[in-house]
Amino acid sequence: MTATATQGPRGRPDPRSRSGRPPGDHASPGTSPSTGAALAVLPRVLSRALAWTDAHRSHFTLPDDVLEPHTQVNATLKPLGELAQLGSTIRRATAPGTPEHELAGDLVTYAWQQVARGDLLLELLRAEPFAAYPYEIYAAFAGYGLRHEGFEALARPLTATRAWAHTEQHANRQLGLVNSERRVGVVTHTDAGGVLSRTWLGGLSEPWMFEGPSGYALTHTVFHLTDWGRMPDRVPERIDGYLRTWLPAWADGCLESGQWDLTGELLAVAASLPGPPPTALLDAVWPVLADVQHTSGCVPETGVPVREDAPPDPYPFIDCYHSTLVTAFAAALSLRSLRSPGPTRQTDEAGPGRERHTP
Hints:
With about 350 residues, the protein is mainly α. It is about 50% helix and about 0% strand. The chain is globular. The two termini are about 35 Å apart.
């Protein structure tokens, strides 16, 4: 869906951005060009991205034939599930009473209504008991406190089967399933520590082998490990050190090649690390991504940013909804990290390698 980070954008960047610099003309993420530069732009970035999402919420509406076999999951349920997941994380990361907090919660409520308060997910689970995605979408709501008794009653025996425990998938996807089980509150089907060791990130892969697919695998490994930034202390020390060393170089490469969606995910990873935030990285990268954001609030996945302010929709929805949500998600985490540096208070007694799992 997105070009690799080693590829150039689809065309040359606009020779001059709104800030008067070429989009690729930025300070190295390894140094801080201006202390507080991230905090100066983050509130506006978050507010605009959420406003755009709210204005386009009808695009997340599920079609009447969503349960039919011909319906494309990636164009219907996937965007809605991402709205639920990232919206719930933004609400948790923002202060109660703020417009961003309230709007994020409203978007999650809208997504819950779209799945008929869980009834539609139950129908999906009945139709596809072998599929993990209905369970993972449900877990996004369950982690927020929205539950459906009938769904969980059916899911309980299904997740205890040998087939569920031995579903063949990439390690980072399996880690996502483990996190979904944690959210629902059932015994996990395998040990998270063992799965983490089989991921690209867990193996501390050679950093110069980073490209698009491995980049997204890396970011989602962190998201699943930390429950989307809520539990940074789940990141092992060796991985924390590896990420702090190499995130600046990877972010720089993404900026140079116009990979805005992956840039946002890397920023979310940076804001999900335990301990003090990597301030120099955030200060270097956030002003660049803020400059890419259209005045309407949306952010393209890749390529040359549209600079004209007149068009209400500078990009097709499918080409910007995810990167816009990711930008809002990363902005909320970054603001939380920069305003409250240090270890996150929230802990989880069942960290990697310690949770119970089925035989």
